[in-house]
Design goal:
Layout (H helix, E strand, L loop, with lengths): L2 E3 L6 E3 L1 E4 L8 H13 L4 E3 L7 H8 L8 E6 L4 H15 L4 E6 L5 H8 L4 H10 L3 E4 L1 E2 L3 H10 L4 E5 L11 H7 L3 E5 L10 H9 L4 E6 L3 H10 L8 H14 L19 H4 L2 H7 L2 H14 L8 H5 L6 H19 L1
Parallel strand pairs: 3-4, 3-11, 4-5, 5-6, 6-7, 8-9, 9-10, 10-11
Antiparallel strand pairs: 1-2
Helix pairs in contact: 1-2, 2-3, 3-5, 8-9, 12-13, 13-15
């Protein structure tokens, strides 16, 4: 397994880390077994968040007795001191630990949020005090906005930056990553599979392995996925012209206007299954019309309940025009229904 030293933190970790969202789909014992398997295969960095349902609790169960063998990162979405500290204490309890290796204000994507975070009564002062008390070892930050992420890096206040990077979303490599490295920051890569839109996990991970300064967070819910991630970041790896051509094919297919399945848009007050409906374009490209309709029919029928309130779009970190896109996909679905009859 390749290793990384996470910026100036001194934390030595595996080059691929474990993203904690997918384990919310697993039972507690099943999740604990998977996390232990990841440790046995050499993964030492585990990333979760207070809001990832019971992900923290599952990690707490899995790492009982081996806390010193893993590096744990978690997050808060709160910008105020009181609320952030409440989430920190809850995370410590759930994770069954008395310290967090890396604590990150999550999804700071506009100047107003940053001003609240840093201002009087903001979370940052509270987190610095928690670090002085030993409850936090290092403070990082995450964002989905490239412009904001660069501003966060420029402050020099954070040990790490976590940002999306994958075959399709490559903008960070030009300026954000070099700027972070110049400040000796650790770089955590989220969305390595573009929110599940890249169905060739081996290709997606080998693309990222070419960057020796990145710690890649691969979300896994099976032992096979863990093994694939470990195998890619162990031994030799070659990036071929055929790989580059396939990667370009994904870029042409997805463009920049696609859902990353972060689910910040949910829940919909009308019951629309937004996340899965937003995948219909890709589903339709990979299946016949009849199969696409059969596969996604129940989801696409919920789109008819959309009242175009726009609430989902205000919560999207990628600023996607979600209601507009849902209408497009519903029209495509309806055309496929007619074709399949």
């Amino acid at each position: 397994m390749q290793t990384r030293t996470l910026g100036n933190t001194g934390l030595a970790t595996s080059a691929v880390g474990f993203g904690g969202i997918p384990i919310i789909r697993l039972g507690r014992d099943e999740a604990a077994a998977l996390l232990r398997h990841a440790v046995e295969r050499g993964i030492t960095f585990f990333d979760t968040a207070n809001r990832y349902m019971d992900s923290e609790e599952k990690m707490g169960q899995a790492f009982a007795g081996i806390r010193d063998k893993v590096v744990i990162a978690t997050k808060t979405g709160m910008r105020g001191a009181k609320e952030a500290l409440e989430e920190l204490e809850l995370s410590l309890t759930r994770l069954k630990t008395d310290y967090i290796d890396l604590y990150q204000p999550h999804q700071v994507s506009n100047p107003e949020e940053f001003a609240t975070l840093m201002g009087p009564g903001g979370a940052m002062d509270a987190l610095v005090k928690a670090r002085e008390q030993g409850k936090i070892r290092h403070i990082g930050i995450t964002s989905h906005s490239l412009e904001m992420a660069r501003k966060l890096v420029a402050t020099g206040l954070f040990a790490t930056i976590q940002f999306p990077y994958n075959i399709v979303e490559t903008e960070a490599a030009a300026e954000l990553f070099p700027e972070a490295l110049a400040r000796d920051m650790g770089i955590l890569v989220m969305k390595p599979f573009a929110g599940g839109m890249l169905d060739d996990g081996d290709l997606a991970l080998r693309f990222l392995r070419r960057h020796p300064d990145l710690l890649v967070l691969a979300g896994c819910d099976t032992a096979e996925q863990v093994d694939q991630a470990v195998d890619v970041f162990s031994g030799d790896s070659v990036w071929t012209e055929a790989d580059a051509a396939k990667a370009e094919g994904y870029r042409q297919e997805l463009g920049s206007r696609f859902c990353r399945r972060c689910e910040y848009c949910q829940p919909c007050p009308q019951g629309v299954r937004i996340t899965y409906a937003m995948m219909y374009r890709v589903v339709a490209k990979r299946m016949s019309p009849a199969k696409a309709v059969n596969f996604a029919g129940a989801t696409m029928e919920t789109v008819r309940e959309c009242v175009d309130c726009g609430e989902c779009a205000t919560r999207c970190p990628y600023n996607l025009p979600i209601p507009e896109m849902l209408r497009e996909y519903l029209a495509l679905y309806d055309s496929h229904r007619q074709e399949a009859q």
